[in-house]
């Protein structure tokens, strides 16, 4: 593995390098457990003439070939390649809770911040990716941090061409520029990553919406009065430029509406009522949430069934339903 890395650091001639080590097979060999990844990768290939990925792809789909090749080059067989479902979930999650940081003196870092009670999701990310570290900051906050050059290089490859929100694309462009200035310095060197200003449009066949919901979404149930109830799903975004993301939710799920929040330049996507919220089940059952919000979703779906079965009309059951509803957004214990 050391020989491979040293060869890579000193050789930008990809054709002779890939021919010698036959690295073109790395993608398909490590995605057998991911149908979506195989379906996607079958549409792209490494060309025999120059060993760069072909340009026969749409800017509207996730594009992991470059990341997959370099991940296998750097980790070899010591680490399993992250699958399509995880990578698309991770990108969605980062677009909500992640940060591309460039300090004034030029230091760069990639950071995801979470409540320490949900540190398990940071541990999971570190375990799947195989790089980065977990840092506790105070009693209530934990962070997943990537500062090493190899990890930063893989983060740049992963997010380049794969960002959905315009706001995150702006911060990534600055971050990538700083990394490229850093990439050619020191003993370990990497070829600069060419920035792409294209954005991806996620679908119901990838996990981006699940990751974004883990970060920004909210499942709510309230039971009040004698027989009344409210069940809904909310997802809010700040900024006019990100309103289009909420419109995408309406299009994909074919349900819900966008409302203007009382806070200036803030909008939220809302799905309300039993019949409309039921249309979300298929997606979230297929692409599971990975934070504590999974518990919220499970309770929310359980209450949906109970209300649909008219249990809220039974005075002997109503109090227990109210108690369960109060726990939907309080799942820490």
UniProtKB/TrEMBL annotation:
InterPro entries: Homing_endonucl (IPR027434), LAGLIDADG_dom (IPR004860), LAGLIDADG_Endonuclease (IPR051289). The keyword Nuclease applies. GO terms for molecular function: endonuclease activity. It comes from the Eukaryota. Residues 91-178, 209-303 form the Homing endonuclease LAGLIDADG domain. Mitochondrial DNA endonuclease involved in intron homing. This is LAGLIDADG homing endonuclease. It comes from Blastosporella zonata.
């Amino acid at each position: 593995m050391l020989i491979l890395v040293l060869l890579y650091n000193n050789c930008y001639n990809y054709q002779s390098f890939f021919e010698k080590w036959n690295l073109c097979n790395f993608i398909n060999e490590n995605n057998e457990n991911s149908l979506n990844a195989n379906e996607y990768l079958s549409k792209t290939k490494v060309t025999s003439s120059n060993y760069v990925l072909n340009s026969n792809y749409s800017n509207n789909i996730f594009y992991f070939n470059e990341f997959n090749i370099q991940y296998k080059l750097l980790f070899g067989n010591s680490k399993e390649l992250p699958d399509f479902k995880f990578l698309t979930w991770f990108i969605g999650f980062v677009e909500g809770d992640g940060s591309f940081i460039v300090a004034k003196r030029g230091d760069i870092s990639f950071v995801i911040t979470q409540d320490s009670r949900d540190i398990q999701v940071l541990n999971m990310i570190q375990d799947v990716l195989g790089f980065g570290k977990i840092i506790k900051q105070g009693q209530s906050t934990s962070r997943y941090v990537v500062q090493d050059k190899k990890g930063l290089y893989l983060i740049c490859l992963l997010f380049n061409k794969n960002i959905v929100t315009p706001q995150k694309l702006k911060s990534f462009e600055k971050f990538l520029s700083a990394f490229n200035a850093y990439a050619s310095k020191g003993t370990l060197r990497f070829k600069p990553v060419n920035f792409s200003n294209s954005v991806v449009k996620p679908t119901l066949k990838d996990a981006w919406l699940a990751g974004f919901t883990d970060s920004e979404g909210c499942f709510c149930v309230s039971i009040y009065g004698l027989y009344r109830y409210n069940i809904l799903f909310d997802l809010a975004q700040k900024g006019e430029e990100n309103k289009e993301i909420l419109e995408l939710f309406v299009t994909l799920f074919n349900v819900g509406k966008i409302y203007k929040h009382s806070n200036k330049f803030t909008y939220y996507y809302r799905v309300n009522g039993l019949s409309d919220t039921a249309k979300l089940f298929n997606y979230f059952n297929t692409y599971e949430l990975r934070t504590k919000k999974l518990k919220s979703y499970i309770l929310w779906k359980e209450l949906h069934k109970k209300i649909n079965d008219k249990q809220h009309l039974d005075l002997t059951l109503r109090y227990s339903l109210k108690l369960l509803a109060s726990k939907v957004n309080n799942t820490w214990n």
